Give the backbone structure.
Amino acid sequence: MNIDLSGQVVAVTGASSGIGEATALAAAQAGAAVSLAARRADRIEALAKKIIDGGGRAVAIPTDVAKEDEAAAFVQRTRDELGGLDVLVNNAGVMLLGPIPGADAGEWRRMIDVNVYGVLYTTHAAIGGLLEQGSGHIVNVSSVAGRRATAGSGVYNLTKFGVNAFSEALRQEVTAQGVRVTLIEPGAVATELREHNRPEIQKQMDERFAGVEKLKSEDIANAIIYAIGQPDYVSINEVLVRPTKQVG
Ligand SMILES: NC(=O)c1ccc[n+]([C@@H]2O[C@H](COP(=O)([O-])OP(=O)(O)OC[C@H]3O[C@@H](n4cnc5c(N)ncnc54)[C@H](OP(=O)(O)O)[C@@H]3O)[C@@H](O)[C@H]2O)c1
């Protein structure tokens, strides 16, 4: 892809691993200045150093996006330290699978706090400035699970269906004023996401995806860079990317 993001500031949540890390790196390689949010400060600081050592601009901002004040501070510090904000990639997320009966309600709260409130808080902090400047882009990383509910994934589905609905409503509110909204819906990607699940759940996931060559984080980063690299009058609203052999 020959996309030039020089002069743009791209803020990425969940930049300490997986899709967020790959997206931040790809945006920096395309010339953007990037701000990196996640709770693991050491990981985003190392990524920022790698980008800066390679001649790019980056700032690591340790952030828990589930906390409204920290999410707002991430957006504000991005503007203060990188001179503006053009693209917000709401990528931070957790996926804690398992059946609804007998579930740990704490896991539900974690998913809703990060996958839903995390997206709302950063968007809330960013959107006023984007509307004022009459340009900008919000990219929300949802999932195939945001379009298709399955047994054992109910609350993760709830959070991602919510992100889909919110993204479309937001798009209708801001697109005529020059602010673009893109929904990215990955299928199975090889990242740390599955590792936060109980061992028996990980086993079920492995069985579900047996024989499927999973996507790499870079495949989703490519889709995000493609969407944000389009001319201002082109709005890529939705991108659904599955591994070829993923059926459901
Ligand atoms: N992997 C897949 O198969 C797949 C498929 C569809 C959609 N997705 C979505 O893709 C997104 C990225 O996931 P991934 O697959 O790249 O998994 P990952 O490697 O586990 O990355 C998740 C990222 O979210 C961050 N995060 C979690 N809680 C956070 C919080 N409270 N505050 C700030 N950051 C937080 C993590 O950083 P810290 O732990 O350092 O905070 C990490 O950087 C998620 O929204 C996920 O739902 C993934």
